[in-house]
Amino acid sequence: MIKSMKYSLKISFLFLFFFSLIGCKKNADLIIYNANIYTVNKNFNIAKAIVIKDGKFLEVGENELQNKYNSKKSIDLKGSTILPGLIDAHCHFYGLGTNQLVIDLVGTKSFEEIIFRLKSNSSEKNTIIKGRGWDQNDWKNKDFPEKSELDMLFPNIPVVLERIDGHAYLVNQKALDMAKINLNTKSNSGSILKKNGQLTGVLIDGPMRLIDNVIPELSKSEKIKALLDAQRICFKNGLTTVDDAGLSKEIILLIDSLQKNKDLKMRVYAMISNSKNNLDYFLKKGAIKTPRLNVRSVKVYGDGALGSRGAALKYPYHDDKKNYGKLITKPEEIKDLASRLADANFQMNTHAIGDSAIKLLIDSYSKVLKNKLDPRWRIEHSQIIDLDDINGYNEKILPSVQPTHATSDMYWAEERVGSSRINGAYAYKKLLEKSKVIGLGTDFPVERVNPFLTFYAAISRKDLNEYPVNGFQFQNALSRQETLKGMTIWAAYLNFEEKEKGSIEKGKFADFIVIDQDIMKVEINKTPKTKVLKTYLSGELVYTKENP
User: Fold this and answer.
1) What is the pTM of this model?
2) Enclosing domain of residue 124
């Protein structure tokens, strides 16, 4: 009898002990284990498991974390690779969406191919024909196209065809007439191209706004569709934050409302387009910060693009001896705006391609930031830099670059600037040495959305045909760690968001992706083929390859 009682007490004690252990376990929403996790933390540690609760990383470590938590769901990744959610440090998210509504001209190899696409994708019902993506540098005849054939085919419908970089239009006579553009129209911030005393239909930079003013505006439903289409494409490519380089007040407020309704989940770092209406509203209102929207910066256009010879250079173009390019925003306006934004504690993010524009920005930024502790002002693109000016980059003046621009432009960039200036072009390693961080993006839809093309281009300095053999100016290649940081934690830093995203660490948003190969170890030429298997935002599965 006594033995029986002792045995019963022993069993009871074991049961109590067992259930007390269970009771001591913490609750979680999701545990992922048996994974190859690049945390991108300070030590660039590799973990095996992550625990998620309430949309944030609760703990990061080894597989034993399974035993520490009661989780609603557990996933064995069987060795698959996890990265922090990727951040595109410079893109046009809304523009990607609106691009889905126009005729795709990307990859056309001649003007004849453009005409074919226009004929195939338009009808008599059209009230306007819009297309985007042409690049005369990809054609056998690299001269700018002319409007004559558009005038014959579409005499009564306006045609507006945007160059791939967004810095030039080709339009027909109907569009010119609607915008009241003629031979006497003046432009101080761009060019209206003429040939043999006639308009060619090509407008570079400033005059494009005259066309924009007469193009019918998209409906609200079309704008919403554009944003949701862009989100779908970005999630499929593993992006969880996008830095949209230039948005109007209207679109920013629309994004905010869609996010609050949980229709739009993408995190957006919204750069305010530089207009009086936008600045008067947001500088008075102050910064906006929610878990999904950050509005504290202004996008300014310093100059145009290299491909359309609109980038502002200190000396003439090598292949156009009378052309220096043009500033889009006048020097005095740059300086006044820099002072105004510094006083308002807003970040200034300025598009600058040419060495003249970059020098102006370095001087203007440096003057107003002298007494600012941590402004993180950005020079977007930082493309053609006079090596005498590169020391102007520092912890206050940061580069935001797009590695695929280097491998797209390398075929003709030296023709534009010559053999001497090309040494300061696409100089990512030199810029990193000066500023200690560098943000990497794509500038989509100028380039493709795929961030693994960014990864490959930054490291190899080659195109997808593995040209050139030794890489384009390979001395400015980034390492794999530097590149991944530029797409995650450093991009977050440029956005003042490094404490909430950009790495897989306790307390940060549970934004991460699962990919089909280890990009930190496979041969570099295999990285462009990387596929995103799953995209998570705040621990929620927002894309899976099995159900795209």
Assistant:
1) 0.88
2) 102-212
